[in-house]
Design a protein that fits this description.
mainly alpha, 4 helices
């Protein structure tokens, strides 16, 4: 499905961000993954991704991403 393809691309973005210690991109990727998991009904994974995304957004001081997660 398109959602599964989106998750695969978000995971690739997350992997690259982790390899480059790019905290802001890690936040964006995790928030997008969380919202996608929420949309497809995987609430446990969504919560995990969103909370991790918020943690990285706080570390990178990007409030708009942190707020989007809520």
């Amino acid at each position: 499905s398109n959602y599964q393809q989106a998750l695969a691309w978000f995971q690739k973005a997350l992997d690259l961000a982790e390899a480059n210690n790019d905290v802001a991109t890690m936040a964006y990727a995790l928030i997008n993954m969380g919202m996608t998991h929420k949309t497809i009904g995987d609430t446990a994974r969504a919560e995990r991704n969103l909370l991790d995304g918020v943690r990285f957004a706080r570390r990178a001081s990007i409030r708009n991403v942190e707020l989007y997660a809520y």
